[in-house]
Amino acid sequence: MFNKGNKDSSSPETGAFSAPPKRTAMKSKAPSILSGDLVMTGSIVSDGEIQLDGTVDGDVRAGSLIIGEDATVSGEVQAETVVIRGRVTGSVRARQVQLAATARIEGDIVHAALSVESGAFFDGHCRHSSDPLKDSGSSNKPAAKDNGVKSEPSAKADSKPPAPGKDQDPLGSLEPPVASKSGF
């Protein structure tokens, strides 16, 4: 009698103990925190959230990334969302990029949405893209190679007109044709 109750109670409890897989799922959603005393050489890859307070010499790819004030990343950063409060030397590719006042970026940023606080330092090129993560490796490099291979003559033709335009002033280039036309 008592045993039956325990067995019946233990069965629902065992069913209730199916919660650890939920806890495991919760653990995968918890951020990975890399503390300030961590110095890592190599790449970091995660589908979840990473909070980086240390130093990483390598690429970082994550679902969501927070780079703390004392953190340093030397490499490419790719994520859905990136909040940068520290230093990044390398390119940043993300759908949403936030540069805090303490941020220092030396590299290019490809983004769908960008916000920059007053005081942030950014040295590089900034380009909007509707899908910056898909543009990362496959679209940029092969497209450049394909365009160069398929249309080398047009690429040369494209490079020739800007060169004379850069060498001569626009007003200076307009004056000689006018002088030659009026001088017969």
Q: Give the termini separation.
A: 120 Å
> What class would the helix/strand composition place it in?
alpha/beta
* Integer count of domains: 2
Mean pLDDT metric: 74
Instruction: Please summarize the sheet with the most strands.
Output: 8 strands, parallel
Which assembly state applies to the chains in this document?
single chain
Strand content: 25-35%
Number of strands: 14
Which stretches of 5+ consecutive residues score pLDDT under 50? 8-27, 138-161, 170-183
Helix content class: 25-40%
Q: What Rg, in angstroms, do the CA atoms define?
A: 28 Å
Pfam family, one: Bactofilin
Biased composition (Basic and acidic residues): 143-159
Family: Belongs to the bactofilin family.
Region (Disordered): 1-31, 129-184
Kindly summarize this structure in a few lines.
The protein is α/β, with parallel strands linked by helices. It is 38% helix and 34% strand.
Defining key terms:
single chain, 184 residues, alpha/beta, 14 strands, 38% helix, globular, disordered C terminus
